[in-house]
Amino acid sequence: MTPEDRIHALGIWQGPIEISPISGGITNRNYLVSDAVARCVVRLGTDIPIHHIIRQNELAASRAAHAAGLSPAVIHHSPGVLVLDYIEARALSPEDIRTPEMLARIVPLVRACHHDIARHFRGPAMIFWVFHVIRDYAASLKESGSTYLSLLPELIAKAETLEKAAAPFEIAFGHNDLLAANFLDDGKRLWLIDWDYAGFNTPLFDLGGLASNNEFVQAAERTMLETYFDRPLTDELSRRYGAMKCASLLRETLWSMVSEIHSTIQFDYAAYTAENLGRFERAYQGFEQDR
């Protein structure tokens, strides 16, 4: 059955429908669907255990994020299918996020994610512990005979150093995938979407991911941290944050290495691996210099 056939067969539409692919998804296939009444986003994707993606968790997080006022409503779900209300908005770019004006809008949204979603989340919740994810990815790469095997011992040793340096850990409900495209601006407010990796984590992981995914300069990182925590940046917080930012980049690197082997979605994972590995090595060098 084609994706279009699956969408037609959902049985939730009012009259004829129009289906248009939405580009950009690398763990789902996404479509904009219009019927006689409304427009919806249809996300097609099954569990991906190797990436710790469980669709029931994504559904629960999506519902909780909507209840918290951060994300569009869930219209329908069935195995492998999630239908969401369509928001007339544009996805942000890293260049957008790096502007002081946009960063001032984004930080409260991220804080609300951390503080509010857990109050609405129902049922079993996942923990997204980046250092476990890194170790699990490394084990998967060894089992698969990855071409990156020679790099793994050094990368795992660096991860262990980062885990020690990032302590102590505050726990909050995290989005854990703060790419620019997961922020939508409808002209009046911002929305946060795509809860594939949602789960309890430390806030510094999301903040480090926000900065690393969007290539913040040091001044922007300081502004982000001081705004989020509402206090001047201390050396201790800066050290812990720097470690989690490195961990975010290492996880993204290993995610891409694993995806090179296992993903069926068309995407240049090899180039993405090389890009993120280089960014991780540069960030780790800076982390060591600041210790």
TrEMBL record:
Does the keyword field hold Transferase?
A: yes
Stored Gene3D superfamilies = 3.90.1200.10, Phosphorylase Kinase, domain 1
Q: What cellular component GO annotations does this protein have?
A: cytoplasm
Protein origin, superkingdom: Bacteria
Q: Name one GO biological process term.
A: phosphatidylethanolamine biosynthetic process
User: What GO terms are given for molecular function?
Assistant: ethanolamine kinase activity
The reply to whether Plastid figures as a keyword in the UniProt entry is: no
Specify the protein name. Answer: Choline kinase protein
Ranked from the top, the taxonomy reads: Bacteria, Pseudomonadati, Pseudomonadota, Alphaproteobacteria, Hyphomicrobiales
